[in-house]
Amino acid sequence: MAKIEFGSLAFVIDEVRGKRHLLRMKEGVRFSTQFGYIDHEEIIKAGDGGVAYTQKGVAYRVFYPTYSDYVMNIKRRAQIIYPKDSAAIIMSGDIHGDQRVLESGIGQGAMSIALLHALGGKGQLTSYEIREDFAMDAAKFIGEYYGDAPNHSIEIRSVYDGIDGEFDRIVLDLPEPWHVVKHCGTGLVNGGLIVCYLPTILQAVTLVEHLKASGIFEEIETFEITKRPWKIDGRSVRPEMWTYNHSAFLIKARKVVPMPVRENAPEKEADSEEAMPEED
Ligand SMILES: C[S@@+](CC[C@H](N)C(=O)[O-])C[C@H]1O[C@@H](n2cnc3c(N)ncnc32)[C@H](O)[C@@H]1O
Q1: Taking 80 as the threshold, does the pLDDT of residue 1 lie above it?
Q2: The predicted structure's pLDDT at residue 232
């Protein structure tokens, strides 16, 4: 378990406005707020789940930041995949230890941390990123929360130009993932999964058309994840007035050996594609 100490992160929330702050603990440093100051030393003494007070007596709840606390509260240069979607990518992509996972692009590195967590120190995560400045920032961002990741490498290159080697899983968050479909013939194992994150439905349609036309993908699913927070406070029990609206569409597909054309193949039932899938 990560501990709050000098050099570590801490996440503090004030009791007046519920404002959240992500801090790096430093010896001899004070956290200055509109309600007064708290020495970092006092935050460390309070510990995970504890409480620290400004010299004016305002309380701050103290936590070690979760993954969501970290990625949602850091200053960002690239649009990240939010935790509700990264969780769905990991589950629908069946991503876990021992796998070779290719991610592109790395952006801020938020999805990379989620993938490293899923791999649990095993397997290998390779990130292809065209922008060196993003790659450098992402490496720093990942290191600050996850620490050293010997099973992670970043390569400055375009995934549209090809994939070196063979992967078990591919996760894409870039504008035109359909350019990658042709590289999956050799870049993704048979039975391997690809999951793509796309903000617009036109991108999703183009990708699905390419996946189908390739003849090497089946089990194609397009979906989105909606998070609808509720307020539960005494008799006031209702959905929150604000809500997370659309983030992106997720498209998942599984690589297959193309089905040989057979003269005596049974005819596909007209509505078989409309059948209700088993719940997962
Ligand atoms: C939205 S960001 C990814 C954010 C990331 N998933 C996260 O959660 O932090 C998209 C990234 O894809 C990169 N990119 C765009 N086209 C690319 C390509 N052809 N090959 C590799 N990276 C690419 C961009 O430079 C950018 O860093």
Answers
A1: no
A2: 96
Distance CA 36, CA 32 (A): 6
pLDDT single digits (tens) 145-190? 999 999 999 999 999 999 999 999 999 999 999 999 999 999 999 9
For 9-65, give the CATH class.
alpha beta
CATH fold for the domain made of 76-258: Rossmann fold (3.40.50)
24 half-sphere exposure, CB direction, 13 A CA radius: 5
Tokens of 254: 């599984």
Kindly report the number of other CB atoms within 10 A of residue 95's CB atom. Answer: 22
Instruction: Identify the three-state secondary structure at position 11.
Output: strand
CB-count exposure of residue 94 (10 Å: 0-12, 13-18, 19+): middle
- Residue 65 CA to ligand 1 center (angstroms) comes to 25
79 touches ligand 1 (CB under 6 Å): yes
How is the chain split into domains, by residue range? 9-65, 76-258
Nearest to 137 by CA among 125, 151, 127: 127
CA distances from 144 to 110, 149, 259 (A): 12, 11, 47
Residue 218 in marked binding region:
no
Which pair of tokens denotes residue 195? 């999951």
Give the pLDDT confidence of 210-251 residue by residue, as tens digits.
999 999 999 999 999 999 999 999 999 999 988 778 999 999
